[in-house]
Amino acid sequence: MMNLPGHALWFLPGKFRLAKLLGPKYSLRCVLFHHIADKQSPFTHGLGVTMSPDDFEARIRFISRYYTPVDLDTILAAAKGRELPPRAVLVTFDDAYASVAEVAAPICAKYRVPACFFVNGAFLGNVDISLDNLLCYVANTVGLRPINALARELNGPDQKELHSRIQITQEFIPTLSRERRVAFKARLAETIGFRTEDLARDAGLYISPEQVRELACSGFEIGNHTYSHVHCRILSGSDYSSEVDQNRATLEKASGRSVRVFSVPYGSVADFTPDLEAHLRKAAYDAAFLVESRTNTRATNLYHLNRVSVHASSDAGTFAEIEVIPRLRAIRDSLLGERKPHSTGYVSSLPF
Questions:
Q1: pLDDT at 339
Q2: Is the pTM of the predicted complex or chain greater than 0.90?
Q3: Which class for 8: exposed (0-12), middle (13-18), buried (19 or more C-beta within 10 A)?
Q4: Nearest residue to 169 via CA among 121, 233, 111
């Protein structure tokens, strides 16, 4: 329903001025992409993270034409009093996909669009596989039966049947401690007769340390996305050292640059806990990012910067996603008097 007015506005004269009537205090747009590839694989089909190179270039062309792409330093300077340029936008990527280096980066360079890439160090060089990609592969090749069997094994017979990826990612996986999550992942791979490292090598999804350094040298900002892409609501105590501090050290070694920013895996404010925020502040991070598809104003906390996950394949759809829907969500939040967590940086709510 929120998409409809955005699409309609795109075809009217003065569309940006009309959108501004919905909420004038939209100073910074942050957009998010993940995997840029011509074809989906069993490891990604159904996750809602893949965009074709042609569609991605069209979105970057749209951004460069109608917005002012900015880098992290420009945003940090604005927080200290400098003015952001009109319709400032920061382009970001999550999840350590090699396609960012191989496909997206040359397109960004072509249009002179700076970017920030949030990376999980555990997957560098394809030595391990993300639980999300493993779940996707199992569901696409064998079905949900082994996932449900292991869920019942962990949680007992009262564990309800899981029918979709969004149920698994939002209802089941966040209930697992970090240790149980690791065990679940290893057992799931064993169930289908593989080791996680073999699946990672065969999939070849992730960026190498050498590519991280090349991106950093070309001007990409490298950011922290936790070591193994976990729901941060489960972290406590020494988990922060393992997931946040270890990842920072891994990425700084690979990139040769300081890691200054953090993005929350899955993007929900429910995962940006007070303990996580305190840890990031103590570690002197400059900013943290969510995926709540809401507006960023001059009053927005640098530790609660909102991003929009872009999935549209048309200019009208992109305009709706970036310019209109965040404003409508801000209106809704104001009317309700509360902010409820937006579900995820991914969009698929269908079965795998």
A1: 55
A2: yes
A3: middle
A4: 233
